[in-house]
Amino acid sequence: MTGLLQDHSRLSIVSLLASSSVGELPFTSIREKTGLTAGNLSSHLRTLENAGLVHTTKQFQGRRPLTTIELTPAGRTALDQAISAMEEFVRAHRNQ
Asked: What InterPro entries does its record include (predicted)?
């Protein structure tokens, strides 16, 4: 599962969601913070959702559509594993 997070964009998305104080972020906020196009972000989110790492909710706020993305427990675990793998890599190569 952590292999999915080797992609910089997907790692950025999951990291943003993990750092959100409310547990979810609007699609537009993720797009702005990552600098991804709407189409590219949608593609990455579909990959993450198919893997069970994020959950997408589509609703309306007044008359405007609102899509929010939430990190799942499996997503949190995958992020923690990816961070551990990066830390291990750094430790292993620091003294070479």
From this structure: ArsR-like_HTH (IPR011991), HTH_ArsR_DNA-bd_dom (IPR001845), WH-like_DNA-bd_sf (IPR036388), WH_DNA-bd_dom (IPR027395), WH_DNA-bd_sf (IPR036390)
